[in-house]
Amino acid sequence: MELEEHMRAIAASKIAIIVFSKSYPLSTCCLLQLEKIIECHETFGQIFLPIFYEIDPLDVRYQKDDFGKALEEAAHKSYSGEQMEHALSRWSRALTTAAGISGLDVRDFRHDAELVEKVVFRILELLDYEDLSNTQFPVGLDTRVEKVIECIENHSTKVCMIGIWGMAGSGKTTIAKAIYNRIYRPFIGKSFINIRQVWDRVDRRHVDLQENLLYGVLKSKPEVKSVGMGRTMIENGLSQKKLLIVLDDVNGFEQLENLCGNREWFGQGTVIIITTRDVHVLSRLKVDYVYKIDVMNENESLELFSWHAFRKAKPRKQFNELARNTVAYCRGLPLALEVLGSFLCDKTMEEWERVLPKAKVIPKLQVQKILRLNFDGLCDDMEKDIFLDVCCFFIGKDRGYVTEILNGCGLHADIGIRVLIERGLIKVEGNNKLQMHPLLREMGREIIRQSCPNEPEKRSRLWFQDDVQDVLKKNTGTEATQGLSLKLHLTSRDCFKARAFKKMKRLRLLQLDHVQLTGDYGYISKQLRWISWQGFRFEYVPNNFHMENVIAIDLKHSHLQLVWKQPQVVKWLKFLNLSHSKFLRETPDFSGLPSLEKLILKDCPSLCKVHQSIGDLRNLLLINLKDCTSLSNLPREVYKLKSLRTFILSGCFKIDILEEDIAQIKSLITLVAENTAVKQVPFSIVISKSIGYISLRGFEGLSTSIFPSIIRSWMSPTLNPQSFVSPFCMDMENNNWRDLAPFHSSLANLRSILVQGDTEFQLSNEVKTIVVEYGVNVTESRISKHHLRFSLIGVGSYNEFLNTLSNSVSEGLASRESCDISLPGDNHPYWLANVGEGHSVCFNVPQDCELKGMVLCVVYLSTPEIVATECLTSVLVVNYTKCTLHMHRHGRVISFNDEDWHAIMSNLGSGDKVEIFMTFGDGLLVKNTALYLICGESNDLEKEPVE
């Protein structure tokens, strides 16, 4: 009877803990309980924590030595014949399963008190007993929470779906968090996801939601390759678990159908709570109960407002009437009460009286009018102007670009943008682009519209297309306008008069995409700081178009043949972008552009001359001449540039030489010169102290260039690089190589090179000859004196697979009986395995999936004191299909970043035949190299190089 009670207790528990000791298998009762625990763990996801007390987990897993003998004795004592064999088999399986679960190995603890503390900490970590942060003042919350919990309890025998429906700002999230905190403890797993925050990321909406759900419940985040895979992972991983899931701020059924569209994906007793403003979402999902949130009554509203305004449940006596009037404006909307209360907190009676007349009744579902209080709370007009400019013109633009333009407007945007970010009004995405929540954007634009609702010409900024066209056609512009944006279709035939800008004296931001403007450009404001005019129709910019104060000029897809007929002085200009101007023949005279930082002339096929005055630009950071196919030479003055960091010449196939004087550009970090007519790579490029990345795909002179020497020097940095040069440089006299002593020291700065060979045969022979010459520095005869180890190197998206792979390789090496190595193969659903002998591995780029990342596994022999992470390392990616060689040098710590991954991917195409070589410093012998490709389902493998 006692055993049956134990079994029932085990089945009702959220977590089971077993302490394995040397005497554990002597108890039949313990073994039967272990069977029950494993059954509960596998059936409905019960948390299981094995503790190995003064015993090796491997002894438990394989029932070795005395532990195995004790197990056999227990079976002999309790059973006989076939029953004994059957029991022994069951218990062996249970022990093997238990030992394979991550637990605590406590053989090294100094005393039991320390052990108990560690176990308690681990249990708390597994149970994850931590409340969600919630409202400081839970006015009226308990009664609402109780109603929902009562409904959940009525549906406890099945998968229960509850909807919480209410308008924006009504307290849906607050109620959902309170319910979560009240009921989460009995559930095996739990997850609280703000759907809107994930959905707003746009890129991988559905799979990001699925990953969030799996991570929240399983506490590990497997990478979801596709929506279909995510649904399968949810069904397989969660179907036997009792879960609590809250999906907050849902606004469309499509956000739910791949998360919880089928109740059979979840275990019995699971509770799913959805909060939304759209009741139709809940009806489509067929939830069990919809709880509609009504606005707060008068007493609740006054109490909530008072807590935020006065830090107590009732208003101060002298503020009573003012407080009640303010509460009336909010109409029971909690968000409005909280915002207004906090806004008025600590203000004097006089300040209340000034503020309140500005407050308006807050209609339902118009949250932007509440959010305006955040705008009004900004410290000064400059911060407000920055916010409104970003609202109307700069969402999606680079933060640095916008900062420079608005600084030029006198707005101190360095500080102002940071303040807006800190206050949540602006956010910066990973690519440094400014973004804003749509509600905030609408709120900002509504502020401008409301300033003159019926007279758009009197507004500070014009962006609504009908309003802009109306103002320009009727010539009703005024001095109030500071910014104007009109984007027409490429085929539009609408034409406007420049005279329409005559009264817009304060215009500083102008965007006119594909707009035809005729007449005297002298009417356009002299205060312009930003001009964005795609499809500019003139052959040159009119001389009377005043640009003396402009910071950025963007005339992409223009009809320009010359920028200006006569040199112009635009002393504040920092950004000049004339990309895709098909008729542009030459650059402007740069002598009047002393502040220029970025010159972008991408895809200007008629460009044949770069003005020699470019050498006088002391602030120039970037030159992009990609695909300027008519450009055959560069002025020598370009090498005088002292601040240039990025130089892009790809696709300029008529440029036949890079002068050795390029070494004068001491600041150059990135050189991209793919598919040019370069015949000889100057030695000076390689010895530049600043250079970090060189890409020379399409370079024809690999066999006579310095690059084989670079490969050798990377592989054997202790040897004299001069000894490598002569076999590969066919014409030493003509090449006029100077002293090569600086060669080795300069390579410390060079991280990556991409070059192209003439033929696959030539490329293969040269690479393999060089690698073989250096690659075997430890002979087989010394193997017995060395240790077999492995190193994992990841690039791209690989983190979620590294632990799994590491464990698999470790097990393979631990169980080996000789120097033969068995590495994991394609038995994992998320990787494709390729294993090679020695220091290289070959593979073909998959044709039916998108590469997300890769992990290189290198198994090597070395002395005990040497490991791969302490040796100089090089990775060579040879693409035989494209005949390219991509080299990465990583010093003593092997690390790849996102730029490395994008650079690798830019040179890999679907079906390409590729070989990767790994080389280390002296003292290591590479036995095997394996490559694990982490894949998705799209075959979109080609990526643009970074510009």
TrEMBL record:
Residues 1-127 form the TIR domain. It comes from the Eukaryota. PROSITE patterns: TIR. SUPFAM superfamilies: L domain-like, P-loop containing nucleoside triphosphate hydrolases, Toll/Interleukin receptor TIR domain. Gene3D superfamilies: Helical domain of apoptotic protease-activating factors, P-loop containing nucleotide triphosphate hydrolases, Ribonuclease Inhibitor, Toll/interleukin-1 receptor homology (TIR) domain. Keywords: Leucine-rich repeat, Repeat. GO terms for molecular function: ADP binding. InterPro entries: Apaf_helical (IPR042197), Disease_R_plants (IPR044974), LRR_dom_sf (IPR032675), NB-ARC (IPR002182), P-loop_NTPase (IPR027417), TIR_dom (IPR000157), Toll_tir_struct_dom_sf (IPR035897), WHD_ROQ1-like (IPR058192). GO terms for biological process: defense response; signal transduction. PANTHER family: LEUCINE-RICH REPEAT-CONTAINING PROTEIN (PTHR11017), RESISTANCE PROTEIN (TIR-NBS-LRR CLASS), PUTATIVE-RELATED (PTHR11017:SF560). This is TIR domain-containing protein. It comes from Phaseolus vulgaris (Kidney bean). The lineage of its organism: Eukaryota, Viridiplantae, Streptophyta, Embryophyta, Tracheophyta.
